[in-house]
User: Which sequence fits this backbone?
């Protein structure tokens, strides 16, 4: 029995907060309704860019519920339900399933890093997959966990019938190529950063979960569309135009910068939750400048290919 196929661009949706720190569910739903029109393939609720680590269980479940209710019915709903123990991960995953999530993205446990051997992680993911009511994907994000999923570990887990893929947020193209070479054809290897999107497409990766898709979903979609249409030059130029903005919202200015970029692009970024700090006025000007440059470059790319 083949595994569920995942294809296209998926935003790991931001969580707008009120200035008081409460979740702004109204703005959250407005974002989902707007993204519905942007040709995205689905939504990741409770990813790293959702400030999930700052949310309690009630808030997490409400966000999943709001996503399911606001999303177009043909779009994929993925929920980030990884906790530090297998027991809690299974419990949250199955609550997400009851609310309508189609699959769960499970972060590698990391707090007791020294104990997280390949053997321990294989056992953990297998245990979660065995008891989950929906398919699961591995979430490899060493930037936050300081744990990188090894090829040996992934090869074992890729054959589990209820582990259907992995989001790889390393941006490491040689590693992605190595993974792609040995993984089963029905295993969904998903790129997790826009900085690696074009190279990943050339390796046969067909899905991407991108922070940048919060503020520039249509442009991210256009890279994949152009590539699949055989217009590799256009795909590469759009991709290259977006790299400075992606660097700004995933590295330099982080989630506060991403949320401000969302505000500038007509989405609802809202406030961040403490102890995260709001983006300052000086950095706002820099983000605004990068966005203006990016959009100018994209207009130039469009005009060049319209003339051809």
Assistant:
């Amino acid at each position: 029995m083949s595994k569920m196929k995942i294809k296209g661009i998926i935003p790991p949706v931001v969580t707008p907060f009120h200035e008081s720190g409460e979740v702004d569910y109204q703005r959250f739903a407005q974002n989902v309704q707007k993204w519905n029109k942007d040709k995205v393939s689905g939504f990741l609720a409770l990813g790293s860019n959702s400030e999930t680590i700052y949310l309690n269980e009630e808030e997490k479940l409400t966000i999943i519920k709001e996503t399911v209710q606001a999303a177009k019915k043909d779009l994929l709903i993925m929920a980030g339900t990884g906790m530090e123990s297998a027991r809690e991960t299974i419990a949250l995953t199955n609550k997400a399933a009851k609310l309508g999530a189609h699959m769960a993205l499970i972060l590698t446990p990391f707090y007791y890093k020294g104990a997280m051997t390949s053997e321990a992680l294989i056992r953990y993911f297998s245990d979660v997959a065995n008891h989950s009511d929906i398919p699961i994907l591995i979430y490899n994000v060493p930037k936050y966990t300081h744990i990188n999923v090894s090829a040996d570990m992934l090869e074992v887990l890729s054959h589990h019938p209820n582990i259907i893929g992995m989001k790889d947020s390393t941006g490491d193209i040689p590693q992605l190529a190595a993974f792609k070479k040995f993984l089963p054809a029905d295993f969904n290897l998903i790129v997790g950063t826009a900085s690696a999107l074009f190279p990943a497409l050339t390796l046969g990766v067909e899905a991407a979960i991108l922070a940048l898709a919060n503020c520039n979903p249509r442009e991210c979609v256009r890279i994949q569309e152009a590539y699949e249409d055989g217009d590799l030059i256009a795909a590469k130029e759009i991709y290259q135009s977006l790299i400075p903005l992606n660097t700004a919202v995933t590295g330099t200015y982080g989630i506060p910068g991403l949320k401000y970029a969302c505000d500038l692009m007509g989405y609802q970024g809202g406030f961040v939750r403490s102890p995260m700090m709001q983006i300052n006025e000086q950095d706002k000007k820099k983000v605004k400048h990068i966005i203006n440059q990016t959009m100018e470059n994209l207009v130039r790319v469009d005009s060049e290919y319209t003339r051809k």
